[in-house]
Amino acid sequence: xxIAKALxxxxxxxxxxxxxVITSVTPRFGPVTGGTTVQIHGTGFSNNCITCSPPFGxxxxxxxxxxxxxxxxxxPTLIEAVTPPHVPVDVxxxxxxxxxxxxxxxxxxxxxxxxxxxxxAFDPLLFPIFMPPVPGQAGSEFVTTARLxxxxxxxxxxxGYDRTCTLIDPPVSAxxxxxxDPRQEYELTLWPECSDSIAKLFFVPKGNKSLAAxxxxxxxxxxxxxxxxxxxVVRLEDFSEESIALLDVPVDxxxxxxxxxxxxxxxxxxxxxxxxxxxxxxxxxxxRTIFEPSYAVVTDFAPADTxxxxxxxxxxxxxxxxxxxxxDVGSPIWAFITVTNNETQHITTITPQQ
Amino acid sequence: xxxxRLFPRLLAATMTLFxxxxxxxxxxxxxxxxxxxxxxAGGTQVTITGTGFSSECFPHFNCGFPKVFFGIAEAASxxxxxxxxxxxxxxxxxxxxxxxxxxxxxxAAARELPFRFNGPVPETFVRFLLPTFTExxxxxxxxxxxxxxxxxxxxxxxxPVRVFGVHEDCLFVCISGExxxxxxxxxxxxxxxxxxYNGRPAKFVYVPAADVxxxxxxxxxxxxxxxxxxxxTEMPIVHQRxxxxxxxxxxxxxxxxxxxxxxxxxxxxFLPMVVTMSINGEEAARIVVPAAIGIFDPGVAVYSDFxxxxxxxxxxxxxxxxxxxxEFREPVWAFITVTNNETQLITTVTPRVY
Lengths: 354, 354
Known about the structure:
The complex is a heterodimer of chains A (354) and B (354).
Chain A: H1 2-15, E1 21-26, E2 29-31, E3 37-43, E4 60-63, E5 66-67, E6 70-75, E7 78-82, E8 90-96, E9 105-115, E10 122-127, E11 134-135, E12 141-150, E13 156-159, E14 166-169, E15 177-180, E16 185-190, E17 200-205, E18 211-219, E19 229-230, E20 234-235, E21 243-250, E22 255-263, E23 270-275, E24 278-283, E25 294-298, E26 315-321, E27 333-341, E28 347-350
Parallel strand pairs in A: 2-9
Antiparallel strand pairs in A: 1-3, 3-7, 4-5, 4-8, 6-7, 8-9, 10-17, 10-20, 11-12, 12-16, 12-18, 13-15, 14-16, 18-19, 21-26, 22-25, 22-27, 23-24, 23-26, 27-28
Chain B: H1 2-22, E1 29-34, E2 37-39, E3 45-51, E4 67-70, E5 73-74, E6 77-82, E7 85-89, E8 96-103, E9 113-118, E10 125-130, E11 137-138, E12 144-153, E13 161-163, E14 182-184, E15 203-208, E16 215-223, E17 233-235, E18 238-239, E19 248-253, E20 259-267, E21 273-279, E22 282-289, E23 299-303, E24 313-318, E25 332-340, E26 346-349, E27 352-353
Parallel strand pairs in B: 2-9
Antiparallel strand pairs in B: 1-3, 3-7, 4-5, 4-8, 6-7, 8-9, 10-15, 10-18, 11-12, 12-16, 13-14, 16-17, 19-24, 20-23, 20-25, 21-22, 21-24, 25-26
């Protein structure tokens, strides 16, 4: 039996040495939810597998770095593969076969486009602050650290990190997504001067509930004083399509206030903000990619000149109202305020808790 | 904004005028109710005996009176048997004792009789945990920590949002104590001085599910002795869906001797339970979480014996492996506060699930 297997391996390795080459992919696009059957044309495809027993097995096909859930070897010039769910970007298509050929794989760049609304197949995770180390006032330096932990027992695909900019510990090899291994902690930090965006939207498969995440901003020059501040990681259900109230915002020259407003790049492109007796219309800057939220920042919380003395001088409520966009599209927003002490640079947050 | 609020008042005033002019209705009285208790799921047929029950409020015009209220909720249905007998069906309600009241078009019964709801909290109420909720407590180095809760209506809702458990407003005789809700309106927000403490470390509050989308709140802990230095620490307000039978994970917990870590674990059921705490995957302690005392008072375990100088820790809370079957586990929630031993600055590490 063992001899027969060895002979078979020998036979197939010598008989099928042609390297796979992909020439075209049809169709060239499909929905983000996956499930599109794609024909991969080329040469040198085989279903020989020197590590399999019996020594046959369909090749492996990747869309970007996501494995196709189902692959059928049809002929040496045709493979059929079903697309996995994937965020809407252009991806390469690659074929791997363990038939003994060298290198045994081929990659066709920009061969397939995932199209449609990313939110139909994925849930966003907003990291409201995801920045390289930035110097602040009085010699301070603020460092963002994100940690992820998969508490489930199966891997979770995680889209949106940029390996050229993000340091991941332990390292992962894929470029646009990675599988979070069960019971494994990952620490994400950004290279200095690498990114000019403030926040980041990552995507996980819709309905996934097995990740824990932690996001902290620490002031490293005064590390002895505190363990940084916890910034919430924001889920889809935390976004509001109507209004947000931020309570108990201090009115005190000792503190500076920074309100950051985030949207999911849809609906209205402005937000109405009111506090004290002022109201503002704040434009939201849309993200350049699906991995950047729409964003606005408000730092001027000075009361109106004509403000009558209010009955509570020491704190105020900030209200945000999210109008519906063109075509009555809802405009989900989330916002929070950081309160920073001008002297100690100590930060605390005010988040909408509903 | 005034119009919708004013309208029912005008209507009521007009009706009162008409009714008192045309209907010779004496104010209703209640002498007995039977049974005097029933399940929180509602549906109990309660016979109310008294005098002066009247369905009239206007000649030839039935306005749906008499009305019967169980606490703040109107009876699911009312059948008027005679001027001395009503049969009312209980609504779903929080477990506890509340007052039953009968209202004719003109006047309400002066006397309320108690009715007790037994059983679990029905799904028409949403539970929120306030993880710290105490009168000012003295900390190390002359510090004094004060908890401040604020809540208000967000969005366009005109009807009040009712919050159970934080407020005892017993102007006259108080049948129900904590069972009396605070009525948040567009004009009236909940401020720290409206809050009643009962000497317990934490609190569950309940909001009717229909009101939740308009409820917004903020919980902060201040070190009053150092008011100038910082604006306190934001504490999470924990929706019941954050409680889990699965693993709770807190990432990046420091083991630096400059900080002290305090882990708090919260239990909603009326039996004590045991949870396993692991640090970096190794079981570190078994923690007994006491039973909840009532629906408003969670059982709280406090653990602070963390190792030092072992680098950043991943702290997980799980129910022991012997409770493998999810049916035998109970949802818990936990978080860690990290306090600087010198400055007493606090920050939180919370386990959110994504």
